[in-house]
Amino acid sequence: MYASNFVEGVDFSLYFILAISVFFLVGITAVMIYFLFRYSKKRNPVATNIEGSWTLEIIWTVVPTILVLLMFWYGWVGYRPMLTAPDDAMEIQAVGQMWKWTFNYDNGKSSDTLVIPIDKPIKLNLVSKDVLHSLYIPAFRLKQDVVPGKDFSMWFIGQKLGRYDILCAEYCGQLHSYMLSSVTVVENDKFNTWLAEKQDNSNEHPGLTLMKKNACFSCHTTDGSRLVGPSFKGVVGRSETIIVDGKEKTITVDADFIKHKLQNPLSSNVKGFQSGLMPKLPLSDDEISHIIDYVSTIK
Amino acid sequence: MTVDTLPYTTFYKAKKGIISWLFTLDHKRVALLYLYSIITFFLVGASLGILMRLELFHPGKDIVEPHTYNQIFTLHGVIMIFLFIIPSIPAVFGNFFLPLLLGTDDVAFPRLNLFSFWLYAIGALFALGTLVFGDGPADTGWTFYAPYSVRTGTNVTMSVVAAFVLGFSSILTGLNFIVTIHRLRTPGMGFNQMPLFAWSLYATSWIQLLATPVIGITLLMIVAERVFGVGLFDPSIGGDPVLYQHMFWIYSHPAVYIMALPAMGIVSEIIPTFAQRTIFGYKAIAYSSMAIAFIGYFVWGHHMFTSGMSGPAAYIFSILTFLVAIPTSIKVFNWIATLYKGSINIDTPLLFALAFIFNFLIGGLTGLVNGALAADIHLHDTYFVVGHLHYVMFGGTGFAFFGALHYWFPKIWGKMYNKKVANTAFATLLIGFNILYFPMIILGIMGMPRRYYDYLPEFTFWNQVSTVGSWITVSSLIVLIVNLFVAARKGKKAPDNPWGGITLEWQTKSPPPLENFDKMPKIPEGGPYNYPNAKSSN
Ligand code: HEM
Ligand SMILES: [Cu+2]
Question: In the A/B pair of chains, how many CB contacts fall below 8 A?
Fold first, then answer.
């Protein structure tokens, strides 16, 4: 059994072409090397001028034409079913942002990894919050670009129980190669139990929940180490050199600064870190104060 | 063939001093200015390649931070594409040999030719300027995809201006060659008596002239968006990122043929000379160049099969892509047939030409895989593509470039290199090259995406093999270049026509005098490769 319903078509298209390719590569190279020795100056002191042969030209135009049309055809046949998802497909929203995938289910459940029931068509509605990404599941032989402002989707059927890698295949900046997730294919009833499990955020600080949801931690650590942006550890009260309109300025990080930064992320940037990367998040004033509240606790 | 021993003034000695070089109007000197610059950038680009391979030796961090890695592959791509491979064969060997092959004394517009070198130099300064100015070199990949290229803080503007200026240099070279080929062929040489290298430059020049302006305007649009906030490609200010991809590839796909066609022209020169017989299927080779250039305009969409393309568009772009394979395979078959019943001298330039065929076959055949819709969905943006593009550009065009350098070396410098060293460097380069890139094809099929600073543990083995290949490759390149460098300074004197070639450049002295020919060159009767000593076939 193949991991997804597209593996067979993709692999056939790939190995069909590879087989023909190996045949021609080996054949042509062998003939080339044979001629090199058979018609070397020593063996064949006098060359023969042969201008060409229209018969041969026709043969080696027609044969490759037939072969490439076949290759085209199998490529199309393997690809065509990817274009339209069946109507009964289960829809899940897949959100890509620098550098995190989030999967939102219809019942409000949201998860960092994708969990799907076996043998059921799944349709991912792809949303990007910032730049281009591409959702790639090598084991399923499937990828689709996630483009901000476009409603793209992809669909597939997981046919084999197991966990498979999800990678980002379209370059998206600094931590592109760390934008990883996975898809787990499970039995139907296991899936239903998983889906029904409530995420219990009630004991969690609401600021932390918001920060997880908005992927703050894919750029900022809480342990003082450096990632894309400065660490949150002890950030409130710290003095930082920031660059505003090309001029350096030293400030002390406080609630006002954090609020301003969240609302106008590109207005300034901390010296020594790359500018232009922090996204503008749709946060209400209340949410911002929860976040500030939580950040102040990271010591 | 009489070897003229009378003293004469070579183009090197005609004028002296650095100023006479920087302001030269002689096509041969312009060619050499390009050659030295291009080799320098090739070495810089290769060093960046080595750094990447070192970083990828283990998963996790080896030598640099992710951000630096991203800047390295971008700069590597920009240098290799815009400063090395696009100008390589046309600007060096086209400039030097097109007038000689046509039996004339210079290109049509010598001043424009010098100007295009100057543009190249200015463009190169901009590209390197990103190392010093602003927040460092761009980290977008050489494709500058929006909206990341609009948002990143690195110096994208300057990189893009560099590519823009270099585009103009390329346009002017193309224009110059088209006019030269139409107007300056020696009396009696019709289009069908032109050597095939001239044909391939002709097809290339049209692409340079017609496609390059599209990338120019696209890159300016990026600048407008970054600097003035005009919403063109970034959806957050009303633009369309997929539009950018179309505009980028409308140029950059035909640009692949700017890289490949001149290389095919070189191979079409080298093989008949070393087989000492006429080329098989002259017209098929000549016209297939024009066919490739023409169809090549309509296939750009195959870079975008995963960008939300509609079914019918994908269908059409895929089928057109496969059609390009036909004229390409026609060329390969004709080259092989040219060896048949030849009287073959196995010498360094021929080895490079045959290695070109081998590598280019792998590059072309993997290209077919990418052209097939189903397979491409899996392999797009993986290391399969990185392998494929290096087989085409480096294994193909790069090898042809070094083949041309060994072929025409005695003509350019009047000296001969150490062939043993050259052949050794060739053999290790071919082996190292394949160890470096074949694993990438495997990694791609396994599912490793490109532009990855770090990778999953299952990809470790082939990455390490590839890195070892990069050491062999670069060592061979150093030996190859040092060997030629030494030969240019103190090599043995070479005869005017060491390979027994019959195209016109072999009729003048080595190195050629300032105006190329002392007396009118004689066009060989019955075509440019009609070797008088060979039997005729009927
Ligand atoms: C010593 C020789 C070389 C080495 C070791 C090397 C290595 C590499 C590697 C490892 C990458 C992939 C980076 C990534 O995706 O993370 C790459 C990309 C690339 N290389 Fe090379 N390369 C070499 C020579 C060349 C040559 C001769 C050319 C062209 C003529 C070339 C053109 C490119 C291009 C266009 C890219 C894509 C850059 C991008 O993704 O933006 N390379 N090279
Ligand atoms: Cu991404």
Answer: 294
